[in-house]
Design a protein that fits this description.
This protein has helices spanning about 10-15, 60-75, 90-100, 180-190, 205-215, 225-235, 240-245, and strands at about 5-10, 20-25, 40, 45-50, 75-85, 105-115, 130-135, 160-165, 195-200, 215-220, 250. The protein has about 260 residues and is α/β, with parallel strands linked by helices. A nine-stranded mixed sheet has the order 8-6-7-5-2-9-10-1-11. It has a two-stranded antiparallel ribbon with strand order 3-4. The protein is globular and about 55 Å long.
Length: about 260
């Protein structure tokens, strides 16, 4: 088995075809937050929130999309597996309701505080400096199930994580890329060495890179061809080319090759 699979395709179409069980699901799905507004910044590059068509939904359409991907990951996640999903704050209660209706148990909501959020241009509201990470587990239907949670120290185990947004060499052209420091923290808490983690909205491949450094395996699904290429290129050079030198990656761009995942 390869350590990391990079799959080009629509998650809702790919997931039902995977014949494998994963130990955890860590995802940063679309937020339904994009808009056509462009903010002009004096002396700086204009800032746009038009991330792409992948982040545009009607409110009802977004909730239906969320329900569909939650239902699709459930059969793949092992009975005691963790589900971690990023969310904008306005959708926390909706997403929790959706996965609880599908049989998941909610355990907590973590707040990620961005220490360097984008500036508020019009100064008519707060900076968008916080996002939520919802934690749930599967398999609690009247049974006591042991799930992975690697408690470290009291000081480190706050449900509040502070990091900067991606800057410098870590930054790719993906508009909503999460920092590796943040993803690594989640990987360490909610999985163990050699576990398989699914990211069905893989973006620029941050999870795979963090997991490789922490000796985990991953399945990464990305529907956008440009982001998929960013992920593939990024992982080729990660950790001094360990990926390509040790043949740890399998790129899947054809549906028939999904049978190679076992």
């Amino acid at each position: 088995m390869y350590a990391h699979y990079l799959i080009l395709g629509d998650s809702l179409e790919v997931l039902p075809k995977l014949k494998i069980t994963v130990d955890a699901v860590i995802v940063d799905p679309p937020y339904n937050t994009a808009n056509k507004n462009t903010k002009e910044l004096k002396g700086r590059k204009a800032r746009s929130s038009d991330f792409g068509k992948w982040d545009y939904f009607s409110d009802n359409g977004y909730l239906e999309f969320t329900k569909n991907w939650v239902k699709s990951v459930k059969p793949i996640l092992k009975e005691s597996g963790n589900l971690l999903t990023f969310s904008k704050l306005e959708y926390v209660s909706d997403i929790r309701r959706i996965y609880e209706e599908e049989g998941f148990k909610h355990h907590g909501t973590i707040i990620w505080h961005k220490t360097n959020p984008a500036p508020q241009i019009r100064k008519t509201g707060f900076l968008s400096s916080c996002e939520a990470i919802l934690w749930a587990t599967k398999g609690f239907d009247g049974k006591k199930i042991s799930y992975t949670f690697n408690f470290t120290t009291q000081k480190e185990m706050h449900n509040f994580i502070e990091t900067p947004i991606c800057m410098g060499n870590e930054r790719t052209k993906h508009p909503t890329q999460k920092p590796k420091r943040l993803i690594s923290h989640l990987v360490k808490l909610f999985s163990n060495k050699n576990d398989i983690i699914l990211d069905c909205f893989a973006g620029s491949g941050t999870l795979a890179e963090a997991a490789e450094e922490l000796k985990r395996r991953t399945i990464n699904i990305e529907n956008d061809k440009s982001f998929f290429q960013i992920m593939a290129d990024r992982l080729k050079v990660a950790n001094g080319n360990l990926f390509s030198q040790n043949n740890k990656i399998l790129k899947i761009t054809n549906e028939k090759d999904l049978t190679l995942i076992r």
